[in-house]
Design brief:
The complex is a heterotrimer of chains A (167), B (273) and C (771). Chain A has 6 helices and 5 strands. The longest helix of chain A is centred in the middle third of the chain and has 14 residues, at 104-117. With 167 residues, chain A is of the alpha+beta class. Chain A has a 5-stranded mixed beta sheet with strand order 2-1-5-3-4, sandwiched between helices. Chain B is an alpha+beta fold and 273 residues long. Helix content of chain B is 34%, strand content 23%. Chain B has helices at residues 14-24, 37-42, 78-82, 85-90, 92-98, 104-107, 112-118, 124-131, 149-152, 218-225, 230-234, 251-272, and strands at 7-10, 28-31, 50-53, 63-65, 69-73, 135-140, 143-148, 153-155, 158-159, 166-173, 181-186, 196-201, 204-208, 215-216. In chain B, β12 (196-201) and β13 (204-208) form a beta hairpin. Chain B is globular. In chain C, α13 (497-509) runs parallel beside α14. Classes of the chains: A alpha+beta (167), B alpha+beta (273), C alpha+beta (771). Chains in contact: A-B, A-C, B-C. Chains A and C meet through α2, α3, α4 and α5 of A and α1 and α16 of C.
């Protein structure tokens, strides 16, 4: 057992967990933040994507212990304090970028990170940037549209800073 | 799927990592980004008793201009290699290839040193570093030694690293014509490992996934050296290789791909350089 | 203006986007406090006798609550006596857990028949302990030869089931008469494999169960709670002692129709141990033990005149149903029904054999039997066109069922309702720039370029709401606070029913959508319901909601008339404002709250169980533009243009979303997805690292063209759209890739069209033409 302390969505959470505890299980079972889903065990599907120190990572392939002392942002931490959705969340809603919703947190986090690194991506760059996320419902069409819409919306900058503020 | 139990130890310096490795012996494994080892553990193909986490050894994360070569700390992440302005200018092949590893999330965690030490013949960077004549700096209990890439990869997941030794730095000589490069990664899907990959820097050619280790396409290089045309030289791409068959491709198809991709890579590198 | 037909963004989304859905693993219900985690011990061999199971080491592990095997199942009701399956009997839905000559046990009894079959279950305090302990359950196997391929199964040298003399569990022999091909100028014959694929919902199967005070509550990731409840009665409880709740469900695609044997076991374990339990499968379990789709081999013969008129078509199907006959003959019977597709073919003959193999059971997957029909007839038409030297678009037009022929009953008995096949084709050809694409193709061919393009067409018709007599239920309530509640027997898992059904109620009653709650998937609240599969929900469930809203309106009108002291015929509902008026007196009005408040119990309510006379038949044409690197065989999809006509469109956003998802899955089957086994029946694609699920990086954006031909079978004019995209996309992409290399002499490439397969086909064609 190890003591692991994370700042999740701006809140510090400390717990004694088994050394082998995966970050995704720390988030789900210890922090009780269940938006982050497990979709595979081979780092393939991206459903578990969260931001670690502001960058997208697959939380099923990070030990909680590796993230000790760091900042984690999950889907639950993206909206502003008054509940306003981030630009990416809004764009998913407006562009029907989700259906069953299971892969959605991973996509939203992956795109949030992608847009931070490349604020005005082309469609090809969005598609290439989502190679590590699998969605089975949307055919990706509207997810890509949502990413492009979020990029072109003026509020991208503020949503990114909201995500950072949440850390 | 969950990894089997292990004891987690964290090293904050190279010295501490080496001390821990010496103390814990063969039941311990180094953990860098974890994107090779943790998936194997989750599938229970690997069950080390101890993991020594190198993730906090910030002294090993850098890309530095050393005049004739660029020095890259072993714990530099793919993302940082990919976005390094120094590498983009001096060794664009490496910067580009690092951006082809896995996916963005994986590149935010995976490290160049982890990729080299894991030595998967299907992974991109070992072959790229082979084409670039990189040198690997290794530290162990008895000091520091340097191993050229050509002597580092020994067999399936097997390297010149001895137990308890740590890869600390990758030294990549600056190519005379940095723009004379090409990286051809042939996959079914973007996310897949290369079915075959080809890295070219000028007349140096290396192959991904054409044998138990990353390989130099020596027959191609020899043909080029003796004045063969690109097309003729590329016909030798599969010579001396040992491609396997799996669900993604047969050995014969891999050999064919190697010939096509080597030709394309040489054409592209010449058109760039 | 009515809200119907407008682009309304989903009401479901804000919660899913800010807090995430609540899937089975996310449930924090008090009944599930301290629930034990179930981990299944699964067969590691494809075919073997079990000679011993040793649970002692596992039992000694920390956190282990119980290790259960078939020997513990003494409190199960005895299985009904085996009854032979009538090959022509109507299909059984959901798993057949007990009985029948090809019976599927719950836990393996004496034999295992596929890798992944449940052998034992381990209950632990947490999931980590479960994986550790399950590894320590020791099962002794005496291996038997594995039946892996269609031919292995047909040969019958190794039989899967004792007491049978064949692996052919069901068959329907067509009355074959080869004279139908007499007089055909052009006849083409060949084999087409529709490969086994994974359904792959992003949330795998998941069940939680709690047993308390004689009542079993089960939370199931399912497409229909009510059918799940019926299946769960197998543990020996009457339906009213079971409550099934479907929380958020992370995709289904047919594989979550009802629940599987694991769910029955999990429910039983809760009752057996008295402790709440939860099971959430891993992806490797999902890729080996959730039912899979397709797995048919076709032999076809198609013939017609030199000017392109198809005279006769014959289809022989072998359906690999895997180790247990879940849907058995049902899937190929749908393939037979839809065999002739959109064509008026004078002679159509089709039959099937269902074979057992040592592979994961096959059941419904997006389209379920119909994609296989469309994939093959659309390939066959291209074969025929190529052999006749005709443009495939022209051959399609010549042979379509014409608009004036509807309603039209095909030679296989499918009663097509409405259609405009040529209209859909023309729209797609125009949108794609068909002639320009052909010109570019000619240019590349003449220039001998390495990268060639192919244009693939696929026209399809498909059956939706294939069980219209089962219908669907709806209850609509308006409360005295002016809000409404809709209870539906449909079971949304991503389709957007909550938005769609609220739109229907708003349109009829003028109550704004944000005051309408839609509830589904709880057998205590909705004891009678059918669920979501077969593209049935809007036309059956939506119509039920629509009709219930009308009944509510009629009752409310009577109530409003009383309050106005007017005659009911003078009372009007302003559906824009949601206010009741008397004709000619706009100043006097009543709100819904006032009207409902005056009703008995402050509630106006209507229940409807809508059944439809016949299924509906959406149709369309898809055009795919593929680029093939002829040196490497690598395929790049450049464009995909479709007209998918499913009658009147309620909400274009939802409609397009269904098409997008369907197209991607259809293209995935054509290009990259396949479940593979080695010669011993070991799965080779049991993780997402090996199973090539398609991603955004392999697909273009899709170009959707509108075609809207209402059905007259329901008042909404709606047909189903859930599966159409998939059904059209697979053959469109398939034909496009082959078209790209047809000039090199390639006639066919089986799916998935991997680089190696495409390259090999080119090499073989070159060799053949050199001879």
């Amino acid at each position: 057992m190890s003591k692991v302390s994370l700042t999740v969505n701006g809140k510090e959470i400390t717990a004694d967990v088994e050394d082998r505890t995966l970050l995704v299980h720390f988030l789900r079972d210890v922090a009780d933040l269940t938006a982050t889903n497990v979709g595979c065990e081979t780092t393939s599907c991206g459903a578990c994507t969260v931001l670690l120190d502001g960058e997208s990572v697959k939380s099923c392939t990070v030990l909680a212990a590796q993230a000790d002392g760091r900042q984690v942002t999950t889907l639950e931490g993206l909206a502003s304090e008054n509940g306003e959705m981030s630009a990416v969340q809004k764009a998913f809603h407006e562009n029907h970028g989700l259906q069953c919703g299971f892969c959605t947190p991973g996509f939203v986090m992956a795109i949030t990170s992608l847009l931070k690194e490349n604020p005005s991506p082309t469609e090809a760059e969005v598609r290439a940037g989502l190679e590590g996320n699998i969605c089975r419902c949307t055919g990706y069409h509207n997810i890509v549209q949502a990413a492009l819409a979020a990029a072109s919306s003026t509020s991208t900058a503020s949503s990114t800073s909201a995500a950072e503020a949440g850390k | 799927m969950i990894p089997p139990s292990f004891t987690y130890r964290r090293a904050s310096s190279v010295d501490e990592a080496l001390d821990l490795a010496a103390e814990l012996g063969e039941d311990a494994k180094f953990l860098a980004g974890g994107h090779s080892l943790l998936p194997l553990m989750k599938l229970r193909f690997a069950a080390p008793e101890y993991l020594i986490d190198l993730g906090r050894i910030t002294e090993l994360s850098y890309v530095r201009d050393e005049g004739t070569y660029v020095a890259i700390g072993a714990l530099t992440r793919h993302h940082d290699v990919n976005t390094s302005a120094l590498l983009a200018a001096e060794i664009p092949l490496l910067a580009h290839a690092a951006g082809q590893v896995g996916d963005p999330q994986i590149r935010h965690r995976g490290t160049i040193g982890g990729s080299v030490a894991h030595a998967d013949a299907a992974s991109d960077l070992p072959a790229v570093l082979l084409a670039l004549d990189a040198t690997f700096v290794i530290r162990g209990g008895s000091g520091t030694r340097s191993v050229p890439a050509a002597e580092f990869f020994k067999g399936i997941f097997e390297t010149a690293l001895e137990p308890g030794e740590l890869l600390t730095e990758i030294q990549v000589p600056k190519p005379a014509s940095p723009n004379a490069w090409s990286f051809q990664k042939f996959t079914k899907r973007a996310i897949d490992w290369a079915i075959v990959g080809v890295a070219v820097q000028s007349d140096k050619v290396a192959l991904v996934n054409m044998g138990h280790t990353p390989l130099r396409a020596s027959a191609v290089e020899a043909a080029l050296a003796s004045g063969a045309s690109v097309a003729d030289a590329a016909e030798h791409a599969a010579e001396g290789t040992g491609a396997g068959s799996d669900i993604h491709a047969s050995a014969a198809f891999r050999e064919h791909l190697a010939r096509v991709l080597v030709r394309r890579a040489l054409e592209e590198s010449r058109s760039r350089g | 203006m009515s809200i119907l037909g407008t682009r309304v963004i989903r009401t479901e989304d804000p919660r899913l986007l800010t807090a995430g859905g609540v899937y089975v693993d996310d449930l924090r219900e008090p009944e599930l406090d301290g629930a034990a985690r179930v981990t299944f011990v699964r067969s590691t061999v494809a075919h073997a006798r079990i000679t011993g199971i040793d649970t002692s080491e596992a039992l000694a592990q920390p956190g282990v609550v119980a290790v259960l095997t078939v020997a513990d199942m003494t409190d199960f009701p005895p299985p009904p006596p085996p009854t032979p399956i009538d090959p022509d009997a109507p299909p059984v839905e959901g798993p057949m857990p007990l009985g029948g000559p090809w019976s599927e046990p719950l836990l393996a009894v004496d034999k295992v028949r596929f890798v992944g079959e449940p052998v034992a279950m381990v209950l632990t305090d947490n999931r980590y302990q479960g994986e550790d302990a399950a590894e320590l359950v020791s099962v002794d196997y005496e291996p038997l030869p594995a039946v892996v391929t269609f031919d292995d199964a047909l040969a019958g040298q190794t039989l899967l089931f004792d007491g049978t003399d064949t692996n052919v569990s069901q068959r329907r022999d067509g009355a074959f008469d080869d004279s139908a091909f007499d007089g055909c100028d052009v006849v083409v014959e060949g084999d087409i494999v529709n490969q086994r694929v994974a359904c792959l919902p992003m949330e795998g199967r998941a069940i939680a169960a709690s047993w308390k005070d004689g009542k079993l509550t089960v939370w199931a990731s399912t497409q229909n709670a009510q059918l799940s409840r019926l299946i769960l009665t197998a543990i020996g409880l009457p339906p009213d002692a079971i409550r099934v709740v479907a929380p958020d469900v992370g995709g289904g695609f047919g594989a979550k129709i009802g629940v599987d044997r694991e769910a029955i076991l999990v429910a039983w374990a809760a009752k057996h141990t008295g402790r709440a339990v939860r099971w959430v499968e891993s992806r490797s379990e999902n890729l080996t033990a959730m039912t899979q789709g397709r797995a048919q081999r076709h032999h076809i013969k198609i013939g017609g005149t030199a000017d392109g008129r198809i005279q006769a078509y014959r289809l022989d199907i072998v359906q690999d149903t895997g180790a247990y006959a879940r849907m058995s003959g049902f899937l190929p019977s749908l393939t037979v029904l839809m065999a002739p597709g959109v064509y008026d073919i004078p002679s159509v003959q089709a039959g099937y054999k269902v074979v057992m193999t040592n592979a994961t059971p096959i059941a419904a997957y997006r389209g379920a039997g119909r994609p296989e029909a469309a994939a093959t007839i659309e390939r066959a038409v291209d074969w025929f066109a190529a052999a006749a030297g005709l443009d495939p678009a022209v051959v399609r037009k010549v042979n379509y069922i014409k608009n004036e022929q509807f309603p039209f009953v095909t030679k296989t008995g499918a009663p097509y309702d409405t259609g405009d096949y040529e209209g859909a084709l023309d729209k797609v050809l125009a949108a794609a720039g068909y002639e320009e694409l052909r010109a570019e193709q000619r240019r590349r061919r003449e220039a001998g370029e390495v990268k060639q393009i192919g244009i693939g067409l696929a026209s399809y018709s498909e059956i939706t709401a294939p069980d219209p007599a089962a219908g669907e239920t709806a209850k609509v309530e308006v409360h005295d606070d002016g809000t409404a509640t809709v209870y539906t027997g449909s079971s949304a898992h991503g389709q957007g029913h909550h938005t769609a059904y609220a739109m229907l109620v708003q349109a009829e009653l003028g109550i704004p959508m944000d005051k309408i709650e839609v509830i589904h998937g709880d057998t205590d609240l909705i004891p009678v319901g059918v669920g979501t599969y077969g593209s049935r929900s809007l036309q059956l469930g939506g119509t039920a909601v629509h009709k219930a809203a009308i009944e509510v309106k009629e009752e409310a009108a009577a109530k409003a008339a009383q309050l106005f002291e007017a005659s009911a015929s003078d009372v009007q509902l302003d559906t824009e404002a949601g206010l009741w008026h008397i004709a000619g007196d706009p100043d006097k009005s009543l709100t819904w709250a006032q009207v409902a408040g005056a009703a008995e119990g402050g509630l106006i309510v209507a229940n409807v169980h809508f059944t439809q006379e016949r299924p509906t038949f959406p149709f369309g044409t898809q055009l795919s533009l593929a680029e093939v690197d002829t040196e490497t065989g690598k395929v790049t999809l450049l464009r995909h243009v479709t007209a998918d006509d499913a009658g009147t469109i309620l909400n274009p956003i939802l409609f397009e979303g269904q098409r997008h998802g369907g197209i991607a899955q259809g293209a995935a089957q054509a290009l990259c997805e396949e479940i593979l086994y080695d010669a011993d029946g070991n799965p080779l694609t049991s993780s997402l690292a090996d199973y090539g699920a398609i991603t955004a990086a392999e697909l273009p954006s899709f170009e959707l063209v509108t075609s809207e031909t209402p059905t007259d079978l329901n008042p909404l004019g709606a047909k189903g759209i859930g599966e159409a995209g998939t059904i059209g996309a697979t053959p469109a992409v398939h034909n496009a890739v082959i078209d790209a290399v047809a000039h090199l002499g390639v006639r066919h490439i089986d799916m998935p069209m991997t680089p190696e397969r495409v390259w090999t086909a080119i090499q073989e064609a070159k060799k053949a033409s050199a001879k």
